[in-house]
Design goal:
The chain has a single domain, classed as 4-Layer Sandwich (Purple Acid Phosphatase, chain A, domain 2). The longest helix has 23 residues. The protein starts with 14 loop residues before the first helix and ends with a strand. It is of the alpha/beta class.
């Protein structure tokens, strides 16, 4: 009797069939994780930073969100907003790419209306706002209707926990002239937080008065292989794909979030969505 394909003479499964079945199972598990599970499994990253301009005994809590890419407003975004609010931030900062090709500005507004912080919610634009052609003063009006202030190459002064604070909203794509102009307007005695959608700009122009830079844009690579850098990153990412960096001669802390949503394909692998909580305190 001849041996049947895929079976041993004793009727068991051959090694080749077993390996193919195992590979198929692993591949199915990876695809399930990448397309169905991980894009919705956001996590909170807590970053503790010592800042000389924060008085001893005080702490400033800032929630940072970016890259929502809201195709449709659903329970996932409600959960993200609830989680951000539950961190009890003094301030919520947003760094761009709220829209997709669908131009779902109503969905974006529904999300923004859920965000709450005593110091307010402030935002800058990303590349997708320009690509969707819902940018500038048009977007500012939509955001204002949701209680969010959109900063377009401008400074906004706040008093948070008794800490004089300035937000420097650098518009996409973070030009050198705009950066220089914003820093010239800033007061080095205040806590200055620079918002830039993209992390890769001319860091050599940073002045000592800028204390923290928040960015998004990269999605952390969105699809990562263990122990390797992201295979694909968008323009103006440089080597700053996610996490905390020190940039320029001033060694200014630059934090790049992995973002909340997905772009192009609704997939994430080894790169979960992120809400970042910054805790700024004295040494």
């Amino acid at each position: 009797m001849t041996e049947q394909a895929g079976q041993t003479k004793s009727g068991g499964i051959s090694r080749r069939t077993f390996l193919l079945g195992g590979a198929a199972a692993v591949g199915g598990a990876v695809l399930t994780d990448a397309f169905l599970l991980e894009p919705r499994l956001f996590q909170v990253e807590e970053v503790n930073l010592t800042v000389a301009k924060v008085a001893p005994g005080r702490e400033l809590r800032i929630a940072h969100l970016s890259d929502m890419h809201i195709r449709s407003f659903n329970d996932y975004f409600r959960e993200v907003a609830a989680a951000a609010n539950a961190l009890a931030p003094d301030l919520i900062l947003l760094t761009g790419d709220y829209l997709e090709r669908s131009r779902n500005i109503r969905g974006v507004q529904s999300f923004l209306e859920l965000l709450q912080a005593p110091g307010g919610v402030f935002a800058v634009q990303g590349n997708w706002e320009y690509w969707a052609r819902v940018e500038g003063e048009n977007l500012r009006r939509h955001f204002a209707g949701a209680g969010v202030s959109l900063l377009i190459n401008e400074r906004r002064d706040l008093d948070l926990q008794g800490i004089p604070t300035s937000l420097l909203g650098l518009d996409y794509p973070s030009s050198a002239d705009s950066l220089v102009h914003l820093q010239q307007q800033s007061d080095p005695a205040r806590l200055n937080i620079l918002l830039s959608h993209v992390p890769a700009f001319d860091h050599s122009l940073l002045t000592p008065g800028t204390d923290l830079i928040l960015s998004g844009h990269t999605h952390g690579g969105q699809v990562r292989l263990p122990f390797l850098p992201p295979p694909i990153l968008p323009r103006f990412s440089g080597t700053f794909y996610s996490g905390l960096f020190r940039v320029g001669e001033t060694r200014t802390p630059l934090y790049v979030t992995r973002g909340i949503g997905t772009s192009i394909l609704p997939v994430r692998f080894c790169c979960r969505p992120e809400i970042t909580l910054f805790r700024l305190h004295a040494a």
